């Protein structure tokens, strides 16, 4: 408790699923949190004590508004968690059944959304000469997985952005890292059982620690990447997946 006391954080996609648990954790550790989600986050905000700003991260103006709201409320931006994604609601589909418009939508949220947020928050962090950007990627980048080509391509782009941004923002003392969960039984994915049914048995047999993963399993890595404990760690990926992939 208190490891992030007074830090100002934005969690995109923080209204539900893993993002809600990330927001709760940051609050428990003493941080001020703004949830930026296209979904209604009023309940999440009341539940965690965070602020909520309705935000479509794929829209540059809305991403900028979310960052402005954070600066207005907390005076600074210390931690940006790029968690928003088109994910749990995506139907599993062969590569040749993916509609090109859906491909574009996935890229607009998962890749351009993170870019929009960094584009808005980065200059504030540069002025502060400090900041942590945590990109939520996925173990699927390293393993591949049939039926999710749009999603996996988008997370691959985000992983590449982590490396490039770490070099670009390092001189300003800003750390940029990826947190790569394996299949994790978030409330969102439990509601959309297709993913669990498609992947669970293969995932479990690929893990050194062969059990299901829950949102709590990600918390330690999140706190580490958000806190001063990771001040000399940048451009890295921490996979939290029971040893399924080696990044
Ligand atoms: N749960 C897993 O198994 C798993 C595994 C690997 C990676 N991840 C990643 O973790 C993150 C959270 O996943 P989750 O399990 O909570 O699923 P999820 O699909 O519920 O999470 C996505 C969140 O992003 C929000 N969002 C969608 N479009 C948005 C937009 N345009 N603007 C702002 N917010 C938007 C959603 O409302 C939701 O809150 C995602 O980035 C996902 O890719 C999850």
Could you walk me through the main structural features you see in this protein, from its secondary elements to its overall organization?
The protein is of the alpha/beta class and 247 residues long. The longest helix is centred in the middle third of the chain and has 29 residues, at 100-128. The chain has helices at 17-28, 42-48, 60-74, 100-128, 140-143, 149-169, 187-191, 193-206, 216-226; strands spanning 8-12, 32-37, 51-54, 79-82, 131-136, 174-181, 237-240. The chain has a single domain, classed as Rossmann fold (3-Layer(aba) Sandwich). It has a 7-stranded parallel β-sheet, sandwiched between helices. It is built from 9 helices and 7 strands; from the N terminus they run E-H-E-H-E-H-E-H-E-H-H-E-H-H-H-E. It is globular. The mean pLDDT is 97. Helix 1 crosses helix 9 (216-226), helix 3 (60-74) packs parallel to helix 4 and helix 4 (100-128) runs parallel beside helix 6. The protein binds nicotinamide-adenine-dinucleotide. Nicotinamide-adenine-dinucleotide binds at residues 12-13, 15-19, 37-39, 55-58, 83-88, 109, 113, 136, 138, 181, 183-184, 186, 188-189.
Helix/strand/pairing category? alpha/beta
* Cα-atom radius of gyration: 17 Å
Give me the CATH fold name: Rossmann fold
Q: How do the helices and strands follow one another from N- to C-terminus?
A: EHEHEHEHEHHEHHHE
Give me the number of helical elements. 9
Hetero ligands:
nicotinamide-adenine-dinucleotide
Low-pLDDT runs of 5+ residues are none
Shape: globular
Please give the share of residues in helix: 40-55%
- What percentage of amino acids are in beta strands? 5-15%
Name given to the CATH homologous superfamily: NAD(P)-binding Rossmann-like Domain
CATH architecture: 3-Layer(aba) Sandwich
Task: Give the mean pLDDT.
Answer: 97
In which order are the strands of the major sheet placed? 3-2-1-4-5-6-7
> How many distinct beta strands?
7
CATH class: Alpha Beta
| Count of distinct structural domains | 1
């Amino acid at each position: 408790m208190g490891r992030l006391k007074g830090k100002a954080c934005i969690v995109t996609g923080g209204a539900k699923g893993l993002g809600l648990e990330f927001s709760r954790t940051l609050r428990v550790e003493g941080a001020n949190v703004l949830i930026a989600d296209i979904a209604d986050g009023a309940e999440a905000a009341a539940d965690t004590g965070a602020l909520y700003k309705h935000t479509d991260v794929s829209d540059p103006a809305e991403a900028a508004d979310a960052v402005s709201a954070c600066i207005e409320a907390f005076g600074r931006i210390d931690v940006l968690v790029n968690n928003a994604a088109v994910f749990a609601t995506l139907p599993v589909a062969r590569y040749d059944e993916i509609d090109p418009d859906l491909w574009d939508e996935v890229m607009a949220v998962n890749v351009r959304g993170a870019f929009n947020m960094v584009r808005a928050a980065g200059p504030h962090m540069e002025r502060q000469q400090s900041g942590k950007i945590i990109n939520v990627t996925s173990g699927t980048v390293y393993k591949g997985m049939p039926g999710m080509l749009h999603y996996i391509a988008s997370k691959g782009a985000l992983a590449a952005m982590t490396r490039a941004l770490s070099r670009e923002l390092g001189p300003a003392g800003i750390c940029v890292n990826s947190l790569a969960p394996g299949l994790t039984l978030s409330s969102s994915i439990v509601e959309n059982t297709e993913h669990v049914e498609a992947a669970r048995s293969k995932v479990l047999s690929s893990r050194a620690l062969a059990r299901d993963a829950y949102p709590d399993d990600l918390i330690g890595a999140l706190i580490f990447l958000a806190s001063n404990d990771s001040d000399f760690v940048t451009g890295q990926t921490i996979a939290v997946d029971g040893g399924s992939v080696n990044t």
